[in-house]
Each structure stands twice: as structure tokens, then as C-alpha cells.
Fold each of these.
Amino acid sequence: MAYRFKTKLKWSDVTPKADYLNRRKLMAGAGAMVLGAGAARAFSSRVEVEPEQEPAKIVRAKLKTVPSAFSTDEKPNSREEISSYNNFYEFGTSKSDPSRNAGGLMTDPWSITIDGLVDKPGSYDLAELVQGIELEERIYRLRCVEAWSMVVPWAGFELGRILERVGVQSGAKYVAFETLVRPSEMPGQRSRVIDWPYREGLRLDEAMHPLTILATGIYGETIPNQCGAPIRLVVPWKYGFKSIKSIVRISLTDKQPKTTWNEIGPNEYGFYANVNPEVDHPRWSQASERRIGDGVFAKRRDTLPFNGYGEEVASLYKGMDLRKFY
Ligand SMILES: Nc1nc2c(c(=O)[nH]1)N[C@H]1C(S)=C(S)[C@@H](COP(=O)(O)O)O[C@H]1N2
Ligand SMILES: [Mo]
């Protein structure tokens, strides 16, 4: 199909007819399935639909991915670990809240506003925005500022691909991101623990770095809601809070944007937030970490500078005092 920005893609345009009818029947049979149809449709251009027969559950769609040389050969955490131990304050502040509360999030239709210093600002339907972009499997370490870590097999693509599509103007120096605000489906947003929306940002060269991806899947399937469906940022050399979930807005700016955790605790959470074992959090050491899935008596692992991605990214910070710009 020709690439067109302005035309609304329909499920029926991109799915073989038999699957389409099959899915409709399935949706009619279980009202709650409507929720799940969403994520699948958003990526339907590359999706082989395999709706599961579980009632009231997200329909998981398989994604086609190609391997990437950026993947670690460390053993990935299990799907169960990755989707049951989460930080996603929009659904509550404890690690088990997101998996319990995120099932009702409607991820389709989904649009992303791209604005600021770009040639083609606008509100883009996600399916159209990502159409034709090949998904890669990127197996990355994720290091939370709370000193736990995981290894996640993401499906995604370089953020730079999208930025190129909309045309970054020469004055742009930073990229700002915002998460959806929808308290009716995000129960954590009914309390003011955070000044919603959750906000994050990167310097433009960080955003354009090939390690920086937008992820739409995990383990070769559409991303679970609690992990940031339908699309979230992944910046593997930075603390996890930079990897903002369920993105609805991307703005190119000439000033460093305000970011949620940096605003909440400027002495504890930097804008840069590069993983650094030598700069402790004021309340705990960052020298080591607990890998989720390791037994409670397992030895903690040493935390690596830039989370082990220093060879790729250290040059971005030449001349900066990484103790000051933490
Ligand atoms: N919108 C939003 N994005 C977010 C968060 C959040 O609370 N809200 N938590 C962050 C933190 S602290 C971490 S460690 C990672 C966790 O990602 P995971 O739950 O997929 O492991 O998501 C980040 N992205
Ligand atoms: Mo985190």
C-alpha cells in the first residue's frame, strides 16, 4: 500500500479478510476483547493476527522483527517478570499495581502529537506514523534508579526514524515527551502523586543515537499495557525513569524541557540520568544492582558506567562533568 500520511488506515485495509471477520466475531463474543483489538490494529501493517481465546484479555498480536547487533547476549528476563514488576505511576505506585490496573487502557485509536521545531507538525495516527518501518528486536539491559535491573527483548525502531519523517528544524536542541492523561482509565492519575502528564526529555543527539528506540513490543508481541502500550521510549544507558511510557506527545524544543522526576527531586534525579556507579543517589548506593529474577540470596551485580553502553555513548558527554550533570 502506498504511504500516505493523511489517510486513515483501516483494519480491513491491512488484514486478510478471513482474519478480519474472525476478529469481529471474537470481539462480538467478548465485549472486553474490544480493548485488545486496539494494539493489534495500530501495528497491523506488520502484524500477523493471532487473537487468543482468553476472555477479557488483551489480544496479543505477533510482530515481525529482525535481529540487531545492539542486542546483549545476556539472558532476558521472563515475560512474566517483565510484565508483573513495573513502575508506571499512572496505574499506582507499587510494583504490582500496573499489571493489575492497566488492562482497561484503550490503546486504539492512538495518536501522537508532534510539534515544536519540526517541518511537519501535527497529530499523527500511530499506525500511519510507523507504517513501513521495520521492527528490530533489541535485547537491552534496563537499570532502574532504584537499583534493580532487568533484561528485556524489545521490539522497536530507532526514534530517529520518526524524527526524520517529521523533519527536525535546525534550531531544535531537545526532544520532550509526554504520557497520556486519562484518569478514567489510569486510576493512579486520580491522585496527585505526580503533576500529570508524566514528562521526559532528551538532548537531540541522545534522541538521534541509534541505541535510542521507541518500543512497540516485547518478546515479539505487542507490548503489554503495563509496560507502556502502545509505544514507549527506551534509552538503555540511562536510568529507567527516562524511558517514558504510553507516549502521546513529542515536541522539538530549543530549551531543556522540564522532566517529571527532575522536578520532583532535582537533587536525586538528574535530567541526564546516565547510569553511573560512581554517583550515588543521596539515599542509596548506585554501585550495584539486583537483577529481577535472581534469588533473594544471590549476589548483587556490579552496575556498569552507562549501564554497559559506554563504548557507544560516552563520547556524547565529552567535556561534561558527569558528577555535576548526573
Ligand atoms: N509514564 C510513565 N513512564 C514511566 C514510568 C511512570 O511511572 N510513568 N516509570 C519509569 C520508571 S521509574 C521505570 S524504571 C520504567 C520501568 O519500565 P518497566 O515497568 O517496563 O520495567 O518506566 C519508566 N517510565
Ligand atoms: Mo525507575
Amino acid sequence: MATAEVGDDVYGEDPTVNALEAEIAERFGHEAALFTPTGSMANQIAVQLLVPPASELLCDADAHVVTYEIGAAAAYGGISTRTWPVAGGDLDVDAVAAMIRPDGFYAVPTRAVAVEQTHNRAGGAVIPLDTLRALRAAAGAAGVGLHCDGARIWHAHVADRVPLPDYGGLCDTVSVCLSKGLGAPVGSLVISSAERIDRARWIRKRMGGGMRQAGILAAAGQYALRHHVDRLAEDHARAARLAAALAPSGVVAGPVRTNIVPLDLTKAPLDAPGFGAAARAEGVLVSVLGPRAARLVTHLDVDDAGIDRAIEVLPALLSR
Ligand SMILES: *Cc1c(COP(=O)(O)O)cnc(C)c1O
């Protein structure tokens, strides 16, 4: 980062940002990509590329785009959202296809479908490639776009051994984060055709996301791509070990596919905030999602000794 060559990225003159964008586009088999400060901005640019104002986006009721992006599709894009029931990786393609509404003067037309790979609130669930293929076919037949919120797509790629161009080729737009599992401090990208990314550049500037010497951040992303993708398998193995150790406590909510261990504390002696505070006091950080819901996430900064410590601390708190 300290030695990155930089320029003014608003003018397209930052060589490190340009190289990162080209590399990401190529990795996903698309023509172009655009660096953004956050994954939320990358998603919102993608959604605005695919869905014109007064049209709708379909997505899962627990999707990041409708849960954590503060109404941005409506506020910035004049876009309606309609959701299907929370499904995580078990996407019912026929049910989604049946929701797609055609053009007409009397109803909001559907213009795109968004999926999340892996699914954050569904505990890192992976959508199987065949399901995505079926969804692509249904979206194509209905003439609507497909966006993949791929903040954690690296985990799906590693867990299911699916080449990135297989995901890229099925989607009109993909957003990816460098700042989650890949461990870079800042940055996301939106990936699509050259024509769409030209327009994305304009939308990004309008949203205040045009940055100047952003190459220092892009350099961290380049490092992460070289060194932190394959190692995600270690995070998955650690999450599986942690889940196995917690299984006797009866709190693990659903299968652990990637690096997230979702916890349902409904029958536990502590509620989620109490569990989180007690764990923190013992040096183990737990993410509290609701009164009885929490999750454990393994990542670059958690090593085997850290998992050993979590296994020492967490089951004991749950058996009191
Ligand atoms: C983290 C995340 C994002 C992007 O979040 P930012 O905090 O805006 O970078 C998008 N989608 C999913 C599924 C995420 O988990």
C-alpha cells in the first residue's frame, strides 16, 4: 500500500485501481469492473444499472440490499423492491420466477432479480451452481436482469470449487467485497459489461464515491487476491471445528457451509446480548444479531489457537 503507484481515479488515471479493476473483471469473465468504497455502493450501482426508476427488484427478504442498505434503492434509484421469503441457499427458482411481473401500465414491472452468494443472514449458505443456472434461465426467459451480491462469493468459490467465471457468466452484474473474508481494509467492486461500467462510473460519481488517489486501497485488494483467496478453506475448516464443538450445546442453527456459525439461543441459559457480553469478557468476540440470535465468524485474524480458546470458553457459558 505504501509503495502503490497512484493517480486521480476520478479521471481514470490511477494505475493501481485500473489494474485491480481489470484483474477482477478478468477473474469473473466480464469486460469491466469499477472500484467502490463499500459493498453497499457496489450493490446500489448494480441495481441502478439493471432497474430503471419506477420498476422493481426482486430479492430474498433477508438480503443485504433490503436489510442493511437503508432504503437506498428507493432513495437513489426510485426503485421498488419486492421480496420472497427467507430461503438462504435453498432458493425456490419456480417461486421466484412466478413473482416476475411483465411490463404494463397498471403494475410495477420487474426488471431484475438479486441473489446473495454466500448468504450473510442465512449463515453463509451457498447457492448451488445448478440453482443459479436455473435462475439465470428463468430470468433470461422473462427478460429481466440478474445481480449477484457477491460480497462473500469467494467463500462459495472455495467451498463448492466453482470457477469464478461460472458465477460471472450467469450474472449481468456482480458485486464483490475485498474487505470481508479477503481481509483488505477497504473496497468493493461492481463487475459487468464495458458499457454498463461506463455508466456505473457516472453513478458512482453522483453518489459521492469517486475517489482520488485510491490506489493505496486497490493495492491492498491486489495483495488480498494473491494471498487470501485459497486460504479461505482454512476459515471454513475452523468454522466447522467450532460448530462441531458447539453442537452438544444445541445452539448451532443450521449447517455450516463456509465461515459463519449461526447460533439460535432460544433454549440457551443466556440470551444473545448476555452471551455476547460473557464471551467478550473471556476474550471471544460474538456477533449479536437479535435477542436470541448470534453468529460466530472465522476469518483471516482468527487462528487455530483462537478457535481452541473459543471452544474452551463458549460451551462452558452455555452449560451454566
Ligand atoms: C458486508 C456486505 C455487503 C457490503 O457491505 P458494506 O459494509 O457496505 O461494504 C454487501 N452484501 C453483503 C451480503 C454483505 O455481507
